[in-house]
Amino acid sequence: MIIAPGSATLAQLRAIMQGEALELPQGWQAPLEQSVAALAARIASGEALYGVNTGFGKLASQRIGSADLAKLQLNLLRSHAAGIGSFMPEPVVRLILALKAMSLARGASAVRPVVVQTLLGLLNAGVLPAIPAKGSVGASGDLAPLAHLSLVLIGEGQARVEGTTVSGAEALRLAGLPPVALGPKEGLALLNGTQVSTALALVGLFQAQDLLHTGLTAGAMSVDAARGSDTPFDPRIHALRGQPGQIEAAATLRRLLDGSAIRESHRTGDTRVQDPYCLRCQPQVMGACADQLAHAATVLQREANAVTDNPLVTAEGEVLSGGNFHAEPVAFAADNIALAVAEIGALAERRIALLTDPVLSGLPAFLVREGGLNSGFMIAQVTAAALASENKSLAHPRSVDSMPTSANQEDHVSMATGAALRLAEMADNTAGILAIELLAAAQGIGFHRPLTSSPPVEQAVAMVRSQAAPWDEDRHMAPDIAAVKALVEAGDFAALAEGRG
């Protein structure tokens, strides 16, 4: 895939995350060579340039002699590789490499083409730096994790190759790449930037988008399982409010339920006037989540294409010190994704509770015959409640926190990396909740046989049944949940809501 620096789409970024190779268009090297030459001229003039011939952070007033400029960049990588924790997942690292390469390739960072070529070489060879997940506060860039990434470029640190951890030197050998000898500013350009927090947030966004569509599929199933009404999805209701996500969510639910014989069977004579909110207000809640995710997607696409290191070198040769490394936009976007993921799961948990309550659903208690002898979905609903509760705690905004660093030189930070890191755990929780709802809704629809639901809902039921038999009597529940959760994470149920099933 060829992408011009600064023009990546979300679909292209998702493809890179999933293993697509990345190339840059012909002639991409020229802006980099121009910026390197401009920086060299400024260095030769004897001017003090932050991070080029000075120390870093609080040490910016310390001048560095010309003989030590290369060592300055090398020391920077080594000293800043201070992360801890488990290694970041491979899809995240793929995105980090791609985002860093495309940012540097815009030609405002004064790095030589060989640096970008090495980043792309590692990405396309599947040789991925081993990056500890924790240690960044999301301002002055994602310094620690990017330092661990950058060590591999010089033949140090560690990398992961087909699940095995190897040395940085071995990683370069396997990728067929020579180690990079860093030039002035190149270490700083590699470490500065928001690529780690942005990559984490993008993966969280992609997961959240799939969960949203899975939630709509599961919600439609639950409507029919509970013999709910499709009137709340009437387009006239949503047009009067005008919220775009709500309008789209209602349209999706109408399409998913269109042609349901279960719905037709109780269109007249049903004494219930209105369904509980977890059924009736799905467009309003899921639509609001969709709008949050759409805004986050816009922010993250911009950030993925941005130049976020410091200082920057303009086309005219000026060296500008600024703060594009401050990841506040990413922190806000990640917090909004977290809110959406939590609400998708919270609403699904309420639908599970409805389905297992015979007073509300009209179905057998806990969705099983011979209740008492069998407990059915009793504890599966408890598991869903536990996961939803955990997500509520995890959804607390991280962007409102700040802890001064670097002897108060860096006195306000975004916490974007932590904001984005927790999205994976939240997505895992919500995938578990949705798996339980899909099982419960399929069980509920089974009680209405021989009536059938709509073609898309029946397809979803068949997908559930491909992994888990109907619940005729108590058995181990965990394997069924795990099997259906795997389909959720693969996006199979999301495809139905998107019209791709």
Automatic annotation (TrEMBL):
Question: Where located?
Answer: Cytoplasm
Mention one GO molecular function: histidine ammonia-lyase activity
* InterPro entries given in the database record: Aromatic_Lyase, Fumarase/histidase_N, HutH, L-Aspartase-like, Phe/His_NH3-lyase_AS
Task: Give a short account of its post-translational modification.
Answer: Contains an active site 4-methylidene-imidazol-5-one (MIO), which is formed autocatalytically by cyclization and dehydration of residues Ala-Ser-Gly.
Listed under catalytic activity are: L-histidine = trans-urocanate + NH4(+)
Q: What is any Pfam family matched here? A: Lyase_aromatic
Keyword terms of this UniProt record: Cytoplasm, Histidine metabolism, Lyase
Q: At what sequence positions does the UniProt record place the cross-link 5-imidazolinone (Ala-Gly)?
A: A139-G141
Q: In which pathway does it act?
A: Amino-acid degradation; L-histidine degradation into L-glutamate; N-formimidoyl-L-glutamate from L-histidine: step 1/3
Q: What coarse category fits the chief subcellular location reported for this protein?
A: cytoplasm
User: What is the E.C. number?
Assistant: 4.3.1.3
Q: Which residues carry this modification: 2,3-didehydroalanine (Ser)?
A: S140
The family database entries (Gene3D superfamilies) matched by this protein are listed as:
Fumarase/aspartase (Central domain), Fumarase/aspartase (N-terminal domain)
Q: Which EC class does it fall in? A: lyase
| Family to which the UniProt record says this protein belongs | Belongs to the PAL/histidase family.
Give the matching NCBIfam families: hutH (TIGR01225), PRK09367.1 (NF006871)
The protein in question is named Histidine ammonia-lyase
- Name of the gene this protein is made from: hutH
